[in-house]
Amino acid sequence: MKKSVLLFAAVMVAAASAPASAATDGTLSGSASTGTLNLNVQVDPMVSIRGLDDISLTIDAATIGSNFGTTSGISQFCVYSNADALGSYKVSVNGLNGDGLGNPYGLSGNSSGTQLNHTVGYYDAAAYNSIAATFMRPNVQKTMENTRAGQNRATDLACSNTGGQNASLRVGIRNSVALAALADTYTGTLSVVVAVP
């Protein structure tokens, strides 16, 4: 009796560790024959960023007098992530280094060769929120999600189910920085890198 119990237990362990049933052949029949096959599809984590717009700003006396301390421009765009139900992702914003303090990014003067430093804020919703936004620094990743502020997770690369946009970025140039700068056109490029968390 003890041997039969052990044999039964061994069979059960083998069955539990065996792979799922494989495809089966149909039998010869004069009317119908049925074969079966198993399907196994793996969807890997993926991320995408699309729809960024260039930002162009003009800072003059009128701007300085009415901008409440900072001249800023916003780009709204789409980030896709299927990593989880929240659409989680990591993001970094990279560019020319600024002063390393309150203005972490920089732009280069085309004529003067001097630098105009600025800030970058990132918010993982289409409507930029300066209070809830994340203060970014070059080459530093931050964790974000598609579903911030009641948004739905993007289900295609164009964020069609969220109005085409689900994230926003703001470039800010403080008045103190602008007033200290030489008159010039300052240019640069920001690289927004999204990654699987």
Helices and strands in order:
Layout: H1 2-17, E1 47-50, H2 61-66, E2 70-81, E3 89-94, E4 105-109, E5 115-123, E6 134-135, E7 142-144, E8 167-174, H3 175-180, E9 186-187, E10 191-195
Antiparallel strand pairs: 1-2, 2-8, 3-7, 3-10, 4-5, 4-9, 5-6, 5-8
Q: How would you state the average pLDDT, rounded?
A: 92
**Strand proportion:** 25-35%
CATH topology: Immunoglobulin-like
Q: Into how many domains do the coordinates divide?
A: 1
Into which percent range does the helicity of residues fall?
Answer: 10-25%
Text of the CATH class? Mainly Beta
How do the SSEs run, as a string of H and E?
A: HEHEEEEEEEHEE
Structural class: alpha+beta
Biggest sheet: strands, sense, closure?
7 strands, antiparallel
Straight-line N-to-C gap: 55 Å
Describe the protein.
The chain is of the alpha+beta class and 197 residues long. Helices cover 14% and strands 28% of the residues. It has helices at residues 2-17, 61-66, 175-180; strands at 47-50, 70-81, 89-94, 105-109, 115-123, 134-135, 142-144, 167-174, 186-187, 191-195. Strands 1, 2, 4, 5, 6, 8 and 9 form a seven-stranded antiparallel β-sheet that branches. The protein has a three-stranded antiparallel β-sheet with strand order 7-3-10, with no helix packed on it. The longest helix has 16 residues, at 2-17. The protein is elongated and about 90 Å long. The two termini are 55 Å apart. Residues 2-15 have low confidence and may be disordered.
